[in-house]
Amino acid sequence: MQSLKNLLISFISVFAIGALSGYFSRMGTQGWYAELPQATLTPPAIWFRIVWSILYVLQALSFWLILRAEASALRTLCIKLFSGQLILQLAWCFCFFFLGQTGLGLMLMLALLWVVWNMLKSFAQVSQTAAYLNYPLFAWLAFATWLNISYVWINGAVI
User: Fold this and answer.
1) pLDDT of the residue at 7
2) Distances from the Cα of 129 to the Cαs of 93, 145, 159, in angstroms?
């Protein structure tokens, strides 16, 4: 029963952040963002929905594996890092898309990459599978960082 509860906690927490992030992203893509010159290799909008849906499922499953692990200081660190990266994901969507602050978005994205990198290292010590499930997230965030840098380069930083 505890495992089912942890699975629900994992999916609800990840998809709640995902829904809020999606809301902020839609507001920006329907506004100021649509007016900007696009960065090279910017994928079609539908790709973002598809990729993020897959990434959210992978994140929720990985978090569930961490929650199932025996309580320890390392597990607590993993939970904090995972929660921190979700908050940074939401903050990035809010700042970059909703507020149009591309420079601040870039700073948040760099912080997000750093937190996810440390999360991967910590997850690997608790569950290799949980870490592996987040490699696609790290790769996508690295690509998103490149896009963010491109938008700042092309359009200037807004902070």
Assistant:
1) 92
2) 28, 25, 38
For residue 97, the SS3 value is helix
134-159 pLDDT per residue, tens: 999 999 999 999 999 998 998 877 76
Q: Which residue do the tokens 């690509």 mark?
A: 143
Contact 71, 139 (CB under 8 A): no
Give pairs for 145-149: CB < 8 Å, separation 24+.
145/106, 145/109, 145/110, 145/113, 146/41, 147/39, 147/41, 147/42, 148/96, 148/102, 148/105, 148/106, 148/109, 149/106
Q: What is the pTM of this model?
A: 0.93
Instruction: Name the DSSP class of 156.
Output: -
Q: How far is CA 121 from CA 46, 48, 98, 126, 127, in A?
A: 31, 26, 31, 9, 10
